[in-house]
Amino acid sequence: MATKHSRAAARLMISPAVILLLGWMIIPLGMTLYFSFLRYNLLMPGMEEFTGLANYRFFLTDPAFFAALKNTLLLVGGVLLVTVVGGVLLALMLDQPFFGQGIVRILVIAPFFVMPTVSALVWKNMFMNPVNGLFAHAAKALGMQPFDFLSAAPLASIIGIVSWQWLPFATLILLTALQSLDQEQLEAAEMDGAPWIKRFFYIMLPHLARAITVVILIQTIFLLSVFAEILVTTNGGPGVASTNLTYLIYVQSLLQFDVGGGSAGGVVAIILANIVAIFLMRMIGKNLDA
Amino acid sequence: MTTTFRALMGACAFGALATASMAETITVATVNNGDMIRMQGLMDEFKAEHPDIDVEWVTLEENVLRQRVTQDVATKGGQFDVMTIGNYEVPIWAKQSWLVPLTDMPEGYDEEDLMPAIADGLRQDGTLYAAPFYGESAMVMYRTDLAEAAGVTIPDAPNWGQIEEAAAAMTDRDNEIYGICLRGKAGWGENMAFISSMANSMGARWFDMDWHPQFDSEAWSETLTDYLDLMNNYGPPGGSGNGFNENLALFQQGKCGMWIDATVAASFVTDPEESTVADSVGFAQFPNKEGMEGTGHWLWSWNLAIPAGTQKEESAKAFVAWATSKEYTQLVAEREGWRAAPPGTRTSLYENQDYLDAAPFAEMTLNAINGVDILNPTVDEVPYIGSQWVGIPEFQGIGTAVGQQFSAALAGQVSAEQALQSAQQLTEREMTRAGYIQ
């Protein structure tokens, strides 16, 4: 039973760690905010001056901004759809006892351990390249025209690459959830004559709801900031067809050396990410309380 | 004197000796091109001449190098003592006083021997601010065997119409032979380098004298439509993702009839160890619009410069002088053969019979470089210096954004007209923000 006194002492004891962590977050954030109100370009030294909201106006009126916003949401939504549906199906498959189960499980998990840049390079050059890629060879063998993935369907290709990386994560979490399902319930349903489809929709899926929520929340946090895959494969192009917010900020601050514009973009991205997060919490947070 | 004391004395003396011969370490940032990698293999020779200087290398891909050195020099980071930078950066950085002027270079450097077309772009008020390591222009490289089989001849100074005829005749899609390979990957140093050069040769310009972008002009519309026609009709699939290296690989595998790109590629496509088509490559000048003159629409050099604020100016200067000297060229020739000598910086190289015999592309390269006038890159008057680039700090951002639009047009996502319109709008916007347009 903690007394008031010992609680105060405890707070005092943990304060150094808390202050350090806060500083870790607040100082960069504060600097970003400060820079976002400055006209600050690395290539023009001595020109720094306070410009108020000019950087924000410039970033938000950039024709590429709305394209990037749309692409960011499409990328997150697309990958979530593929990984959740695919993850449920894979988990159901891996839940069945079959020969070589251990090896198959390891193979399914493997993509998660490949670095994003490496997997993007492999997909770009060994699979999707329209002259030398595996898909092109397969298409030619079947007598079809090779499809040029990264210039004809850049965003869809990137959704494919990122989904391939995140499928293992979803599968793993959903599989463990599936294994915690009470087998007796399923058997009882079977005795009552419920077909497999109904057993899945009325027993398994409600049981998986919470795990799916966790998958969606965690993946959203990571997918909002996809960057390496875009840099390696399409450079945000053609045009701005595969530019997301993260990439747009990179272009602003590192390719144009515009620290002010880049910082304003960063602040906008933080605000948008929080809006998306609140939205998500509202939408599916109910499941977590249940 | 006790033994211990003597031993101590000895140790002290040894320590003093060691500090006396302590070498100074300089850090050199460079780009991962073949010529630069070759230089790193010759460092033992440099060490033999300068035992008191150690060199540490930071080798990066071009875009990353540009970001790193720009950030370092702009924020006075002081990570590097020597930087490899392009002739686009040199005048801009020299104006900012970011570079050490290369006066009083060591004896025998022979600055007069540097090719004027290259060296003039590296001087401010007559002072050299960077030493050229190699220089390039652009030209047509084509397969003599395919041209013969298709019954076309490519003249030494072709026009765009002749290029299109030749491309049409050489294209054989069933056997994966594409008449022409050009850059399509977005970037100011990738597709915009080629397209800006082509625009110069067609009489188009980036800006008029009031800094208004010119993408709504007839000449630009003609440039982009011709480029897209060439690539869509006779180019390889996935052209919008191909840069210099991708096209080099395609040409070396024998999949391209023609390739119009940097002259520096000539030594790679004629290298029997790397190229399957080494013995059947012909060269021609960069094409022009029919009835127009001029050979020089492209000028690039990689140069070694010393950032202001380095603590090791003397050692850095010694290294820069060594790496860009005549002796270095000799050294490379002795070790690797004359074909490997860094091209396009010294007049003396092009007067050397050994080099001319070993490099069939030498004369074409020399003419292309000497034909460039960065003060007048195109027919009409312009407010900037440039060639396949525009010499203003904002060009990197603008060039890449415009490059994205043209790359999208090549991928078939937007029409040529839309791409030009977007390019016009975004350039206008950036130039207004930067204060060029009032």
Key features of this structure:
heterodimer, A: about 290 residues, mainly alpha, MetI-like fold, two-stranded antiparallel sheet, 13 helices, 2 strands, flat, B: about 450 residues, alpha/beta, D-Maltodextrin-Binding Protein, domain 2, 2 domains, five-stranded mixed β-sheet, four-stranded mixed β-sheet, 18 helices, globular, MetI-like (chain A), membrane (chain A), transmembrane helix (chain A), Sorbitol/mannitol transport system permease protein (chain A)
The share of residues in extended strands of chain A comes to under 5%
End-to-end separation of chain B: 84 Å
Order of helices and strands of chain A: HEEHHHHHHHHHHHH
> Low-confidence parts of chain B, pLDDT < 50 over ≥5 residues?
15-20
Q: What's the story with the biggest beta sheet of chain A?
A: 2 strands, antiparallel
- Tell me the overall shape of chain B: globular
Which superfamily, in CATH terms, is the homologous superfamily of the largest domain in chain B? Periplasmic binding protein-like II
**Which percent range fits the helix content of chain B?**
40-55%
Q: CATH first level of the largest domain in chain B: which class?
A: Alpha Beta
Instruction: Note the quaternary state here.
Output: heterodimer
Kindly state the number of beta strands of chain A: 2
The greatest inter-chain interface is formed by: A-B, 30 and 38 residues
- Sheet having the most strands of chain B: 5 strands, mixed
Organism (chain A): Celeribacter indicus
Domain ABC transmembrane type-1 (chain A): 69-280
Subcellular location (chain A): Cell membrane
Protein name (chain A): Sorbitol/mannitol transport system permease protein
Task: Give a description of the structure.
The complex is a heterodimer of chains A (290) and B (438). Chain A has 290 residues and is mainly α. Chain A has a single domain, classed as MetI-like fold. In chain A, 75% of the residues lie in helices and 1% in strands. Chain A has helices at 4-36, 54-60, 63-95, 101-109, 116-128, 134-141, 149-152, 154-179, 183-191, 196-223, 228-233, 245-255, 259-289; strands at 38-39, 49-50. Chain A has a two-stranded antiparallel ribbon with strand order 1-2. Chain A is flat and about 80 Å long. The mean pLDDT of chain A is 89. With 438 residues, chain B is α/β, with parallel strands linked by helices. Chain B folds into 2 domains: 3-136 and 300-358, D-Maltodextrin-Binding Protein, domain 2 (3-Layer(aba) Sandwich), CATH 3.40.190.10; 138-298 and 373-433, Periplasmic binding protein-like II (D-Maltodextrin-Binding Protein, domain 2, 3-Layer(aba) Sandwich). Chain B is built from 18 helices and 11 strands. In chain B, strands 2-1-3-11-6 form a 5-stranded mixed β-sheet. In chain B, α17 runs antiparallel to α18 (416-433). Chain B is globular, with a radius of gyration of 24 Å. Chain A binds chain B through residues 41-45, 58, 63-64, 129-131, 146, 148, 150-152, 234-241, 251, 254-258, and chain B through 67, 70-71, 74-75, 92, 96, 176, 185-187, 236-238, 240-241, 250, 255, 393-394, 396-397, 400-401, 404-405, 407-408, 410-414, 419, 422, 425-426, 433.
